[in-house]
Every structure is written in C-alpha cells, then in structure tokens.
Amino acid sequence: MNETQLRELTREFLAKFDHTTMEPLEFLQARFDAGLAWVHFPTGLGGLDLPRAHQSIVDEELAGTPDNDPRRIGIGLGMAAPTILAFGTDEQKQRYLRPLWTGEEVWCQLFSEPGAGSDLAALGTRAVRENGDGDWLMTGQKVWTSSAHNARFAILVARHDPDLPKHAGLTYFILDMTDPGVDVRPLRQITGEAEFNEVFMTEARVPDANRLGAVGEGWKVAQTTLMNERVAIGSRPAPRDGGMSGVVAQTWRDHQENHTPDLHDRLLDLWTQSEALRLAGIRLRQQLAAGAPGPEGSAMKLAFARLAQELTGLEVEVLGDEGLRFDDWTLRRPEKVDFTGRDAGYRYLRAKGNSIEGGTSEVLRNIIAERVLGLPAEPRTDTKVAWKDLPR
Ligand SMILES: Cc1cc2nc3c(=O)[nH]c(=O)nc-3n(C[C@H](O)[C@H](O)[C@H](O)COP(=O)(O)OP(=O)(O)OC[C@H]3O[C@@H](n4cnc5c(N)ncnc54)[C@H](O)[C@@H]3O)c2cc1C
User: Fold this and answer.
1) Is 125 a pocket residue for ligand 1 (Cβ < 6 Å)?
2) Can you spell out the DSSP letters for 314-349?
3) Which of 2, 130, 300, 370 has the maximum number of C-beta atoms within 10 A of its C-beta?
4) 129, 247: one domain
C-alpha cells in the first residue's frame, strides 16, 4: 500500500465510523481493527505492515478524533507493546495488544528495586517454578512503579537462577496485577503527589504462558523495553514552540513586568536548543522507521531532561514571587503526568525526575560514551560471578 492509498483508506474509515456519535472506546477499537492504530505493526494486530513513517499520514487524517484517554500511557504503548511484539507468542500478541492500545488495560513496569536501579541486572525478585514445571511464583519488592495503582498488567523482570551471573539469571514475565500476591502502596514524590508506588510480591502467580522470551533471556528482552523507553520519554512529538519551551515562552509574554536582558538571553538560548532537539527528534523517528531504537535514543533523553529542568527553572524566575506558589500538596494519584495543565512550581519540581526516570543522566552518558562514541567501557568485575555471591 502506498501513501496515497493509506490516506484514502483512512478517509474511508472516517466516513464509516463517526467519532462524534460513537463512544471514544468503540472508535479506538474500530481504529485498531482497521489497522490504523500503529501502521508498522502486523496486519491483525492494529497495523498494516507498513513503514513506521507512514503513521504520520494516519495521525494527520485522524487529528481531533478521540485518543487522549489518560489510561493510554507510555509504559503500555511505548514500552510493553514493542516488547510484546518483539518477543511475544502469537497468543500473547492477540491477547494483550488490542486492550493495551485502546487503554482498556493499563500497564506498569516492575523493573527497579531498592537495591537495583541503574544496575538493573542486580535485581533480586525471585521467580520460582512450582513443582519444577508449574506456574512461576514471584517474591520480592519493586519500587518507583509508575501507575501500578491503575495497572491491570505489569512487565516484570525477575531472577530465576541466583547461581548464574547476574545478567544470565534473569527472565521476563507478564504479571497480572490483580493477583492476591501483589500489594501496591503509594510513594509520595517531591511534587506531593503519588504517581508511583512500591510493589510487594508474595508468591504472586504467573503461568508459564505469561513468560515473555526464553528462560534466561530476561536481560535481552529488558534491553528492548529500555531502548524504547528512552525514545518514548526523549522524543515525544511536540510542534514548534510547543511542549515545555512553548509554555515558558508564553509565561515570558504574559509577564513583561519581570523582563530583564539576562532572562531574555537565557530564554532565547533555551528556545534555540529546544528547536534543535525537536528537529533531532524528527530525525530519530525517521531512523526508527528503519528498525528498532538503538543507543542514540539515550542522547535524546539526556538532552530532553537537561532542557526540561533548565526551562522550568527559568519559568520560575520569570514569574518572580508568583513562581513560588504551589497549587496542590495533597497526595493526589494522577492518572497521567500533565506538565502543561499545572502551575510553574509543579513543572519545576516534576522535571527533577526527568534525569532519573528511564535511566539517569549519568548512566545515559556512560551508554553514549561506550556504545555511540566507542570509548573504553567502565571496568566491570561482577559480570562472571554467580549473582548470589555478589556483595549487596
Ligand atoms: C518519576 C519516576 C518514575 C519512575 N517510574 C518507574 C517505573 O515505572 N518502573 C520502574 O521500574 N522504575 C521507575 N523509576 C525508577 C528509575 O528507573 C530509577 O530511579 C533509576 O533507574 C535510577 O535508579 P536508582 O533510583 O536506584 O538510583 P541509583 O542507581 O542508586 O543511582 C544513584 C546515583 O548514582 C548514579 N550512578 C549509578 N550508577 C552509575 C554509574 N555506573 N556511573 C555513574 N553514575 C552512576 C546515578 O546516576 C544516580 O545519580 C522511576 C523513577 C522516577 C524518578
């Protein structure tokens, strides 16, 4: 199918399904079934086996139709879905992708633990097979789990064999968050609210049919998730003068009483850098059209986090005394992170997490140094030792 035919198909779909009279969910389900969800996915799984770049045609034609259900979050769409597509069985793809895309089922990511964040391969949650070949039983603690309180399913990395070196002893699973062995507790953040949680698992049950990839392949599967996560966080499409730079530029226009030459210079500098990053994001998405994301996504995410923090800091300064206001310190449980609909104080505080979530800026610099620039790797002494013998 060429670009003109795809545009035609999308228009035919729109003529047949009237989004102004249908329930938003029904419209999304029909869109998935027509292959117009993510066109680079296979036919029958929300796509049409087309190049990823063709998605922009569909998005253009369907602009203004329902797609902003807060349950349609990046963890499902940007991280779980590409991992299920790459490693899932046919049954798993059929079962999970449609309700994930429509937002009927929310997903969360059970990776980080109190003793394993940047060094994810050190994680200790145990996956033990009942009677040697039955269901898997998960026991351990995860932390910083965004949206766990809304999630129906989780992508989970656990240790099936502590006698193997840390990377080799990991396996990747899909966990049903409604299992009685799963306990989700809120964690208050610097913003006062609780987007994320700690999650305790006590023999939470996972059938072997919910294993994603082979036993022992967990590290490889997790890499697919993490590469997609960095791209999902770092290269969200925002129009020119949109996103954070647009918000701060508007604050500047609205507060002429606080203008100084220094603030003006800094705003122009950050606006220019944001524009360069936006264009680099377009280039990255075009590269992605050709295959899976590589370590280049780490550079986007690194630059995005730095700019988000500098821009939100500048906005607080531009606002003067008013910038010290804060709208809400209750332990809110937001369905979605909303940078633009809140006040400057919230943006300033929430942006602090941008250089931690999805890989810290220090760790991303290591990845860029080693895998993009080809610099010598950090010395590692723990990769050939059994995980159980590593100091913790
Ligand atoms: C808003 C937010 C949402 C999150 N959501 C999720 C989620 O949904 N699911 C999930 O699993 N996790 C989530 N996380 C957790 C996040 O992935 C971890 O916080 C992150 O990977 C860092 O791990 P850590 O907190 O254990 O810090 P540590 O790994 O202990 O790092 C501490 C400090 O040491 C530095 N450091 C560590 N190793 C190196 C190194 N080799 N070289 C140089 N410096 C190093 C780090 O940069 C950091 O400054 C979230 C975090 C935030 C802030």
Assistant:
1) no
2) HHHHHTGGGGG--S--S----SS--STTS-HHHHHH
3) 300
4) no
User: How many distinct helices (H) and strands (E) make up the chain?
Assistant: 12, 7
Closest Cα to residue 168, out of 377, 363, 386, 367?
386
Same domain for 8 and 141, yes or no, is no
- pLDDT tens for residues 19-59? 999 999 999 999 999 999 999 999 999 999 998 889 889 99
Task: Cite the active site residues.
Answer: 229
Q: How many domains does the chain have?
A: 3
- Whether residue 72 is contained in a domain is answered as no
Instruction: Note whether 213 and 310 are same-domain residues.
Output: no
Give the range of the structural domain holding residue 19, as residue numbers without chain letter.
Answer: 3-67
Decide: 30 in ligand 1 pocket, CB within 6 A.
Answer: no
Q: Do 283 and 266 belong together in one domain? A: yes
Calculated CA dihedral for residues 108, 113, 119, 121, nearest 10 degrees: -80
CB 66 within 8 A of CB 19: yes
- Residue 362 Cβ < 6 Å to ligand 1: yes
How is residue 303 written in tokens?
């630059």
Nearest atom of ligand 1 to the alpha carbon of 119: 29
**CA–centroid distance for 146 within its chain:** 10
CATH number at 192 reads 2.40.110.10
pTM more than 0.85: yes
Number of the ligand 1 atom closest to the C-alpha atom of 142: 11
Residue 144 falls within a domain, yes or no?
A: yes
Compute the distance from residue 144 Cα to the ligand 1 centre, in Å: 9
In the chain, % of residues over pLDDT 70: 97
